[in-house]
Amino acid sequence: MFSLFKKKSPIDKLQEKYDRLLKEAHRLSTINRTQSDEKVAEAEAVNKQIEALLKQQS
């Protein structure tokens, strides 16, 4: 119950965005391959941000 009020860390927020972009890319892969590739590129950029934040914490 108390996790309801817990704020998400920036890494958690980026991870959710990354997952959402990959799901959207998968959905678009059967409809429009170009848009799917763009979503994958966006997801990779978000993944690089996550990795950079993880390196700062180490």
Attribute tags:
58 residues; mainly alpha
Overview of this protein structure:
- The chain has 58 residues and is mostly helical.
- It has one domain (7-57).
- The chain is built from 2 helices and no strands.
- It starts with 9 loop residues before the first helix and ends with a helix.
- The mean pLDDT is 93.
Helix and strand sequence: HH
How many DSSP helices?
Answer: 2
Bin the strand percentage.
Answer: under 5%
The count of β-strands is 0
Outline the fold blueprint:
Elements: H1 10-28, H2 33-57
Brief digest:
With 58 residues, the protein is mainly α.
